[in-house]
Amino acid sequence: MNNAPTSPAELGDPLFSEGSSTISVQQSPAFSPLYQQIKALILQSLQSGEWKPSAAIPSEMELAARFKVSQGTVRKAIDELAAENLLVRRQGKGTFVATHAEQHVQYRFLRLFPNSGNLDSEGPAQREIIDCKRIRAPADIAKALAVRAGDPVLQVRRVLSFVGIPTILEDLWLPGTPFKGLTAERLRESNGPMYALFESEFGVRMVRAEEKIRAVLPDTDQCSLLKVKPAAPLLSVERTAFTYNDVPMELRRGMYLTDTHYYRNTLN
Amino acid sequence: MNNAPTSPAELGDPLFSEGSSTISVQQSPAFSPLYQQIKALILQSLQSGEWKPSAAIPSEMELAARFKVSQGTVRKAIDELAAENLLVRRQGKGTFVATHAEQHVQYRFLRLFPNSGNLDSEGPAQREIIDCKRIRAPADIAKALAVRAGDPVLQVRRVLSFVGIPTILEDLWLPGTPFKGLTAERLRESNGPMYALFESEFGVRMVRAEEKIRAVLPDTDQCSLLKVKPAAPLLSVERTAFTYNDVPMELRRGMYLTDTHYYRNTLN
DNA sequence: CAGTGGTCTAGACCACACT
DNA sequence: GTGTGGTCTAGACCACTGC
């Protein structure tokens, strides 16, 4: 079989004739490898919700048949998606859509660890929703969420405590439209991580995030909520979280107490 | 050719007989894929200095011949090493040993960025070596460097300034033996990143690092060196840097001014 | 042009999980 | 046993680099 470059074909799509020798479908420039195209197709299925979080996607052989490429090509596409934490491979079982729920690490994006002892030694965090209201987006929030200033957004404030000690104060903003119907009640009712709730209730999967970290002093509100003195330095963590296609879906400003905990980062 | 599991063979090593059908050299448990064994062999050559930083390693075909495996297996081994930033692939040219020098990013492990403008907008950092002396390792330093308390270590203090503003104060400790001969002079003479000097002068390549980040207040020395008030919160960044095989080779305690800059992290 | 890494295929077999 | 992902091979061709 010749392997001149061809476009991957969805089921039932017309094929380019196999026998012909040098039909160049994609020439440089703008050459994209087959496996990248397959990756994009899989990504589409993930976005469209064809495969739900924690469900298994079709086997490599099935996908190879569907896209009319070899298993190795599908494999390379899945490899990259697994490296980006969008898929999880489990030998002997299948490939699954990654999820923020039911993962071993309770908070996938939280980089705060206790000074000593492992992560679970202090048990699960206590969560308290302070506030949850609909507001019109100020300019800076709007910019971060890629909406227009004045558009409705949800503003949430909460405190996370470890072994009873308030440690994290978070303000977060969500675009109003995708999160229509989110209330303090529903936040309080949910057990798992907030991002798990976003997945199951609003179909919004956070895929990637960027954080800007600074050392700051708290304002008076923050002092009382975290029970610290005004002179106590806090770690300011401003996170923008993205869904598929780098669409921003959350802005989060956290104040971390770093006496008993530290923010861990690994450099490669 | 059968592909029953075999050990990779260095040039001249005796082979396991190819024809025999079911000689199981490595059974589960402790099964290690061939490409992992190849990866370990390549790693050895990197450690031993067989291939110097920025030099090209042998081509995939050559390595495949040397290790008596297929090109695909070598490829997978190199893929992983490239993903870990130990090797750099350049299409059409070859595969090269990664280096801290001559990289596009001046400081590969520095995560501090100006609030606005890109990285180069403020030009290169100004470096000032405050101090460099030989001391006997206190307990905490010794533990981090995996040496005995009291063993000789080098202690360096320096300030980095951007557009003339002192922004980073760093104290760092290096094990005495591998860095014998390092002086303030030699640090001042060098142009590029410190890690580039370590590579070229001491044959120590930093491969990976872990950072613990906190918000703290400066002591009086730090105040004067960074020209800040005692109440100014600073970002404390404690880094342990590792060479090959996760051997710690540096402990670095940095105080970052985060008024005009921020520490950036990306979560996947 | 030759040499390098990069893509793609097809087929074989191994390790693992379920039933 | 069957089906899944994981490894390994061999060979072909493509894209990029530099002589």
Describe the model.
2 copies of one chain form a homodimer. Chain A has 268 residues and is of the alpha+beta class. Chain A is 24% helix and 29% strand. Chain A has 7 helices and 10 strands. In chain A, the strands form 3 sheets. A 6-stranded antiparallel beta sheet of chain A has the order 4-5-6-9-8-7. In chain A, strand 5 and strand 6 (165-175) form a beta hairpin. In chain A, helix 1 crosses helix 3 (71-83) and helix 2 (60-67) crosses helix 3. Residues 1-28 of chain A have low confidence and may be disordered. Chain A binds chain B through residues 83-85, 108-109, 111, 208-217, 231, 233-236, 239, 256, 258, 262-268, and chain B through 83-85, 108-109, 111, 208-217, 231, 233-236, 239, 256, 258, 262-268. Strand 10 of chain A pairs antiparallel with strand 7 (208-216) of chain B. Chain A binds a DNA duplex (19 and 19 nucleotides) through residues 1-5, 28, 31, 33-35, 59-61, 69-73, 75-76, 78, 89-95.
